[in-house]
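User:
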Amino acid sequence: MVHTRKNQRGLTSAERRKFVSAVLELKRRGTYDEFVRTHIDYYVADGETRLRLAHATPSFLPWHRKFLLEFERELRRIDPTVTVPYWDWTRDNTPAASLWGEDFMGGNGRRGDLQVTTGPFAHAGGRWNIVYGMTEGGFLTRDFGRPSSPLTLPTEAQVDAVMRETVYDVAPWNSTSASGFRNGLEGWGPGRTNDRFRLHNRVHRWVGGLMLGGASVNDPVFWLHHSFVDLLWSRWQQRHPRATYLPTRQPPPGDAQRGRIAALDDRMGPWDVTPAQMLDHSGIYRYV
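Assistant: Predicted structure:
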């Protein structure tokens, strides 16, 4: 049976409570931290020579679709009524949004150490200790809007511009690709400091704290963010039904990206799935 992912702003109090409870139970079991570890392991940058599957690569979208689906399946083993909601950051774009309520994601980090002290994922509650992180701290951190170098969340107009892209991805199949839907949505652009980060990347940067880098899964808002990214890909697929995943084959011998990216029918670790198998989610879930 197809299940439904909803906009977080439309969730009832009971739906919020069930989602949070299921996430906390995954954390208690140690399953949540396995997802954190997986994302760290597959967070490979342009400059590295090993296989790139999760970021700065064509498989960014199908890899995270599978990652999100596996997480959702674990939640639904705990409570079959739970699905992963999405955060439309073009609309709920301030710290005052209901997303950051005490009963849901909690709020911003405090000045100084950026520790989140409100909501169900506050360290003081004893249920959200950071096991795998990129820093020494054992608590969730956030830094909304990066006051030291201020930026805002992406706008609807910026999303619309990317949605008009007619090609999925282009060579050199990394963060320097000058056009294509994948790199536009992932959010790598020219420029320096905040100008370099757009859409998906800019949201990570706006939340700040642990949402920066490979350990970003430590912040549960990661899943709501990527649910919206997946929704945007789904809408783009509907708008451009003839635009297939690219590349369909590995780059030719001698190309710097050969063997470093996943073509349409290449396997994506840590699962035995291909990008081709992740293109259609209509038999599993839908968005409203």
